[in-house]
Write a structure and sequence with these properties.
The complex is a heterodimer of chains A (about 80) and B (about 325).
Chain A lengths: L4 H16 L20 H15 L5 H4 L5 H12 L1
Helix pairs in contact in A: 1-2, 1-4
Chain B lengths: L13 E11 L2 E4 H5 L6 H8 L3 E4 L6 H16 L8 E5 L10 H9 L5 E5 L5 H15 L5 E8 L17 E11 L8 E4 L7 E3 L3 H6 L8 E3 L1 H22 L9 E4 L4 H11 L6 E2 L3 H4 L6 H11 L8 E8 L3 E8 L2
Parallel strand pairs in B: 4-5, 4-6, 11-12, 11-13
Antiparallel strand pairs in B: 1-7, 2-3, 6-7, 8-14, 9-10, 13-14
The chains are: A mainly alpha (about 80), B alpha/beta (about 325).
């Protein structure tokens, strides 16, 4: 997979769609996982573990709280893959 | 000088679970009763954990009372007398007496003395650790009939204002007898530990810290819920899969899945990760019983019999995991 913000966003949106049923096109960079997408901390961990496998990166548990929005998660993943 | 050769034992070729007994805390505590002190609600707890009630022991019911009730029921189920038990293993983290062991006290109470007796500290994996030890003891000839008891009185170990774990916890006991068998009844155990992550589940502080500074209060349990969830649904689920392979089976051979009843969402996600067939009976005793740590697997198994979802003879995958971190999984034939 191409390591661009757009490609990672699309991949992350797919994961969130599978986990929550939310339409993939509603998962945009400005959305907060918790406040806008209503994803709780346990579902977030499922998304994180699937993302780690899909993007072949490690997202430490303690880092997750620093990634409240989709955009921040995308940037973290892109940086980790670089 | 010619030294004589030592004798060494050899035991049964196969082992099985020969009987099951349980005891549950007498009081069903509703979500409404625990929600107020954690600024929560019945709906939040159900959505977050699947728990509707957790059972807790009455004031006069001790850990050993629960263990004794379960043990006597297990002996009856196995058709054995207490004097036929030659080893007692007691898994618990809530025997608040450094020594003597709960196992020795229990062995005496039920009339199994002078059985060998010791405690196992493996938290929520304690039951599966006990099965692994009992299986090995019988197969090497160190024991003939092993009583494995997993009991917890977690209500002595909670802080009603803690939002991380206390509201999940209940009290109960489960016991089984491991005996020799004509056919394999206990598959290989896949087990291990990861002390580097001990901070994910454990006590708020140690007994010595409490002694030196009583203002800290009685130590209670805490957990990093999301991290435990991620560990359980990824690495621990993988351990369960390895136990199936170690038993020479395919996932499609598993008829019953009895994971530690930590949280319904962990159970559901494990089922998904393991890709278990829809026909597999999955234990969900957590809904009414709560999380009883070491006792949860035998309690959940008993519930399946009571609900007539199993009748004995089924291949069941069981896995315990928790504070340590520790984990253990094995496939067993239900008694």
């Amino acid at each position: 997979m191409e390591n661009t913000e757009a490609a990672v966003l699309a991949g992350l949106a797919e994961i969130v769609n599978e986990e929550t049923g939310l339409p993939a096109d509603s998962i945009t960079a400005d959305k907060s996982f918790m406040d806008d997408l209503d994803i709780d901390s346990l579902s977030m961990m499922t998304i994180v573990s699937i993302a780690e496998e899909k993007f072949e990166v490690s997202i430490p548990d303690e880092e997750v709280k620093n990634l409240p929005t989709v955009g921040q998660a995308v940037s973290f993943i892109v940086k980790a893959r670089a | 000088m010619n030294r004589p050769t030592l004798a060494q034992t050899s035991g049964a070729a196969h082992t099985r679970i020969g009987g099951l007994g349980v005891a549950r805390g007498e009081i069903a505590v509703t979500n409404d009763e625990v929600a107020g002190l954690i600024d929560s609600s019945d709906e939040w707890i159900r959505q977050r954990t699947g728990i509707v009630t957790r059972v807790r022991a009455a004031d006069g019911t001790t850990l050993l009372d629960l263990a004794e009730t379960a043990s006597r029921a297990a002996l009856g189920s196995a058709g054995l007398e207490a004097h036929e038990i030659d080893t007692v293993l007691f898994s618990t983290v809530t025997h608040f007496e450094q020594t003597p062991s709960a196992a020795a006290l229990l062995a005496d109470r039920i009339g199994a003395a002078p059985a060998a007796a010791w405690d196992i500290s493996a938290a929520c994996a304690g039951y599966c650790y006990g099965i692994a030890q009992a299986d090995a003891l019988v197969r090497v000839g160190s024991a003939r009939n092993v009583l494995v008891v997993a009991a917890e009185r977690l209500s002595d170990f909670i802080d009603p204002t803690d939002r991380s774990i206390s509201f999940l916890l209940g009290d109960g006991a489960g016991a089984v007898v491991i005996t020799a068998s004509d056919a394999p009844g206990i598959g290989p155990t896949v087990w291990g530990s990861d002390g580097s992550r001990a901070g994910l589940v454990g006590q708020t502080h140690t007994w010595l810290q409490w002694r030196d500074d009583p203002s800290l209060g009685w130590p209670t349990l805490r957990q990093e819920g999301p991290s435990v969830y991620k560990w359980a649904t990824t690495q621990v689920a993988n351990v369960a899969a390895r136990a199936v392979t170690a038993a020479g089976l395919e996932p499609c051979d598993i008829e019953v899945f009895v994971p530690h009843q930590a949280n319904k969402r962990i159970i559901d996600q494990m089922v998904k990760t393991l890709a278990l067939d829809e026909s597999v009976v999955v234990a969900h005793d957590i809904v009414d019983t709560g999380n009883t740590s070491a006792a949860s697997i035998p309690l959940a198994t008993e519930r399946l019999y009571r609900d007539r979802l199993v009748g004995g003879g089924e291949l069941a995958l069981q896995i315990g995991f928790g504070a340590g971190l520790v984990y253990a999984a094995q496939v067993v034939v239900l008694p």
